Amino acid sequence: MNEKKSIYGTTLETLKVTFSGMGLRPFVASQVLSWIYKKNVTDVRRMTNISNDVKLKISQRLSFDRFKSVQQIPSEDELAVKLICELQDAQKIECVVLKEKSHLTLCISSQAGCPVDCKFCLTGVAGFKRNLDASEIVMQVLEAKQLGFDIKNLVFMGMGEPLLNYDQLFIAIEILNSDWGYNIGARHITISTSGYLASINRLIKDNRFVNLAFSVGSAFPVTRNQIMPIEARNPILKVARRLHDYLKLHNRKLTLEYTLLQSVNDSVFEIEGLINLAKYLDAKINLINLNPHEKIPFKPIDSDSLSLIKERIQSAGARVTVRFKKGQDIAAACGQLGESIISN
Ligand code: SAH
Ligand code: SF4
Q1: Segments of the chain scoring below 50 in pLDDT
Q2: CA-to-CA distance for 105 and 189, rounded, in angstroms?
Q3: Which residues, in sequence order, are CB contacts of 106 under 8 Å at separation 6+?
């Protein structure tokens, strides 16, 4: 493993301090980061406005290594491209380029695997390997850009529970969001969470404002507990109250993600609970029909039932969308990330 700190997990401020300590002038930090984030150049030898002895000093201290390998798998419908990234320690993570009407979104991973163990999720089934550090989060965007994808939107809906990797997540977000970095606006970054109370409290305390998506599972504690073990310590009633507090502070958008599992959370009663939650939080509901897999013990619902549920929600006056399953043939749809870990 490389002992040097990765340049891709370093903010401008930190880099300036590091460079000052090395006897270099702070503006060199801006030059280096501008090569990386504005000109897509990651080879220090190609940074032509920096002198050779300074380049040598920098590369002795910081690592410019990227992922060991990045494998691209396009879906048949060409609406998604899965990137399987091999990290320096040979762990594999996945992220997905999603082609929307007018822009490209990157569905990004925050952990290798996931410890939360939601029973309908392939990443959960794959188990937890480790947290990603900020550089490994940023590098997913960097590698996508190197491949020519002009990413404008980020959703933390890949592998892992982002709010269980809070510190590294927000260093990465600073780099992705800053004008000296990738300059992706906060309104274009969404963190999806299964509802980890301690971190939602921290979002409030730290005065962070990002768009959140909350993975509901079920609005009822008993059902939720069966499919999302996180419910035991992070009861949905408390989570909903804290999300309500958070939204009041920042007027941010909240989406409720609802993965439909046949005969588990698709009854009229369950959907009523979801509607009430959406109204309380003034949130949009995003229905996701389960992406089935042989390792997941649930079935999706049929398309007529999905339409009925959508209509019921609409006629109750709540906003609702149905997530189109991009890239299902390459196991790149949400909750299907982890195939490359399981098959290893
Ligand atoms: N850990 C975070 C983000 C990653 S999961 C979270 O749970 O929110 C991203 C979304 O995929 C979540 O809304 C999750 O409920 C959904 N999901 C997980 N497994 C799925 C599956 N098999 N089919 C459809 N959606 C799934
Ligand atoms: Fe982890 Fe999210 Fe999957 Fe649950 S749904 S196991 S929190 S990645």
Answers
A1: 1, 343-344
A2: 10
A3: 95, 96, 97, 98, 140, 141, 144, 149, 151, 153, 154, 155
Predicted confidence at residue 47, as pLDDT, reads 97
Is 118 considered catalytic here? no
Centre of ligand 1 from the C-alpha of residue 312, in Å: 23
Specify the 3-state DSSP secondary structure of 71. strand
Residue 344's pLDDT is 39
Expressed in angstroms and rounded, the spacing between residue 77 Cα and the centre of ligand 2 is 26
Task: Establish whether 339 is a catalytic residue.
Answer: no
Residue 133, C-beta contacts closer than 8 angstroms, at least 6 positions apart:
6, 9, 168
As a whole number of angstroms, the distance between CA 208 and CA 173 comes to 11
Q: CA-CA distance, 208 to 165, in Å (whole number)?
A: 15
Q: How far apart are the first and last CA of the chain?
A: 21
b/e per residue 211-243 (b: at least 16 CB within 10 A): bbbbbbbbbbeebbbebbbbbeebbbeebbebb
Residue 133's H or E segment, with its range, is none
CA 159 to chain centre: 7
- 15 Cβ neighbours under 8 A, 6+ residues apart: 7, 29, 32, 33
Look up tokens 């897509």; give the residue.
40
- Residue owning the nearest CA to atom 17 of ligand 1: 335
Q: Show the ligand 2 pocket: residues with CB < 6 angstroms.
A: 114, 116-118, 121, 123-124, 160-161, 194, 215, 335
Q: Which of 344, 266, 264 is nearest to 296 (CA)?
A: 264
